[in-house]
């Protein structure tokens, strides 16, 4: 049985999955990233996990490695990542190939998630598919004609940094009114607190520093202000999704990531906005669906991408 | 020699081109559209032109027909066109196949122009390419992996109706802040007049109802207000182009259409905005270039699309 190791590097944890040729998970785990120790130390800890895991070292045929940020898959480089301070211009593919002794590929985490959802989740069997990952940041991945679309620079699919409100709030990327600046986790919390203050209330209803999860629970329990904050968030998401429909016209757009845990609180107003905004009924047939693979989407996707590369070489 | 007839149907004129297998123009002409007479009458006039033209009737192997609007190439239908009032749900392919007695295809005019520019103009040899056509409306066409990308609905590439300023001016499509509402010909003229009034001047400097061409000539002659209107237009274009780069990362984006006649008055501020807005130097390597085929782009492109379909059948 061919096993591929998927390594999904986040700012806090590295999620690990042993994935077979069918995309089935044969083992999984989680270790600390400790970005300050550098990529070689992280790769060594991944090797140690693999040695201790059921499969044992040497049992894998290849590895796929993903993280947030600008990843140049062709050259195997991580340019820069918002979560991994100091990991700049890292030859991430080489680092993991040396540590694990198998061929590796590197990919942006949202691209990996989109590929995973396309291959094994919400986008199965579709020709054209888009997946957005909502969290602190907003990532995107695009499948065209059944292949991950990277564009000529390798960095396509950055839907989170497409501007939908040119005079809107400042984004971490330096622009105003990117989707991420409007629906990233921080923007949602600030929106809710602003609405609460506008309604004469105080933030204490949701704790001193509320999270999207806390707001989501509050909204589900009938908190009108929290619900309104999600409705407004969903409206912004819908404007961005209508843009995706006008430009890419995919069969479906899947919404994943932690913030997507709010479910229909966000998705229903997003769907309504898409119906309002797209020019034609035929376009409105696009389905806006929840992602299906949760936080395993990226390591499944990047494993299958690594498997595909391995098969090309054989 | 295989000749294809390209039929580019505008609101006023139908541009006609006889194109050979290499994309070379072997004859061309222009007849009135007279949309009120209906599509069958227009097709009959195209047939009459062909009979009188040097090639003579019967000499063509296929026809490609394009117009603005929502064109369903697969089913051969025109859903609706902004320029052709009353041409709703027209089986345009059948109409032209009956009139001309050869296989026909139908396509959106901006898609046709993008394909023409990719095959024979500003996008030659590129893998991923985008072409925007600026005029009264703003059309877009997307080439992915060397093929015209239509998406799952058939209506992809509608970059003119992607929202970049959600609280912006109302668009003909019903949304606010679409690119078309910000840089369509009418928006440019209104911007210039508004700036002139703001500066205490009157519109008479450019005539009673100035055109983009008149403004362009004025700006080239040193008219500071007209130049400022184009700079602002170029900035909006640049925001939309940065979005295209973030989502599609093409090798180049070509800008055509009548409004593009303003050239660097618009393109230079657009390029500067793209450089400012895209997240990474590698993305900024995208080239923003003038389209090369002028108003022949669509009939060349749709002819070559028809030729491609013909070769598939053979």
Quick recap:
2 copies of one chain form a homodimer. Chain A is of the alpha/beta class.
Tell me, rounded to a whole number, the average pLDDT of chain A.
Answer: 93
By DSSP (H or I, 4+ residues per run), the number of helices of chain A equals 10
The multimeric state of the shown protein is homodimer
The CATH homologous superfamily of the largest domain in chain A is called ATPase, nucleotide binding domain
Number of strands of chain A: 12
CATH architecture of the largest domain in chain A: 2-Layer Sandwich
Biggest pleated sheet of chain A: 5 strands, mixed
Identify the notable features of this structure and list them briefly.
homodimer; 314 residues; alpha/beta; Nucleotidyltransferase, domain 5; 2 domains; five-stranded mixed sheet; 10 helices; globular
Question: Can you describe what's shown?
Answer:
- 2 copies of one chain form a homodimer.
- The mean pLDDT of chain A is 93.
- Chain A folds into 2 domains: 3-108 and 295-313, Nucleotidyltransferase, domain 5, CATH 3.30.420.40; 122-292, ATPase, nucleotide binding domain (Nucleotidyltransferase, domain 5).
- The relative contact order of chain A is 0.16.
- In chain A, strand 9 (138-144) and strand 10 form a beta hairpin.
- Chain A has helices spanning 39-52, 92-100, 109-120, 179-183, 185-198, 212-220, 224-248, 264-277, 281-284, 297-313, and strands at 3-9, 13-20, 25-32, 60-67, 70-72, 77-80, 104-108, 129-134, 138-144, 147-148, 252-256, 287-290.
- Chain A has a 5-stranded mixed beta sheet, with helices on both faces.
- The first copy, chain A, starts with a strand and ends with a helix.
- The first copy, chain A, is an alpha/beta fold.
- In chain A, helix 1 packs parallel to helix 2 (92-100), helix 3 packs across helix 10 (297-313) and helix 7 packs across helix 8.
């Amino acid at each position: 049985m061919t096993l591929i190791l998927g390594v999904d590097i986040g700012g806090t944890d590295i999620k690990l999955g042993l994935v077979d040729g069918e995309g089935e998970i044969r083992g999984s785990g989680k270790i600390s990233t400790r970005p300050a120790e550098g990529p070689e130390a992280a790769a060594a800890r991944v090797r140690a996990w693999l040695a201790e895991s059921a499969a044992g070292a040497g049992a894998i045929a290849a590895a796929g490695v993903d993280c947030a940020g600008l990843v140049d898959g062709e050259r195997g480089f991580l340019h820069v990542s918002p979560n991994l301070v100091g990991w700049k211009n890292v030859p991430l593919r080489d680092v993991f190939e040396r540590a694990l002794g198998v061929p590796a590929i590197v990919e942006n985490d949202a691209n990996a998630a989109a590929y995973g959802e396309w291959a094994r989740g919400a986008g199965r069997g579709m020709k054209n598919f888009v997946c957005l990952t909502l969290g602190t940041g907003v990532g995107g991945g695009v499948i065209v004609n059944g292949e991950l679309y990277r564009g000529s620079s390798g960095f396509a699919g950055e839907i989170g940094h497409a501007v939908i409100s040119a005079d809107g709030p400042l984004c971490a990327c330096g622009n105003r009114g990117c989707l991420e600046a409007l629906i990233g986790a921080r923007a949602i919390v600030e929106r809710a607190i602003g609405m609460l203050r506008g309604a004469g209330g105080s933030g204490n209803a949701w704790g001193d520093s509320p999270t999207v999860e806390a707001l989501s629970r509050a909204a589900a329990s009938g908190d009108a202000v929290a619900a309104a904050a999600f409705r407004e968030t969903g409206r912004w998401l819908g404007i961005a999704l209508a843009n995706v429909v006008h430009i890419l016209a995919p069969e479906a757009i899947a919404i994943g990531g932690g913030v997507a845990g709010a479910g229909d609180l966000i998705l229903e107003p997003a769907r309504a906005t898409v119906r309002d905004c797209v020019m034609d009924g035929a376009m409105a047939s696009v389905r806006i669906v929840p992602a299906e693979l949760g936080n395993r989407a990226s390591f499944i996707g990047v494993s299958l991408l690594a498997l595909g590369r391995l098969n090309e070489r054989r």
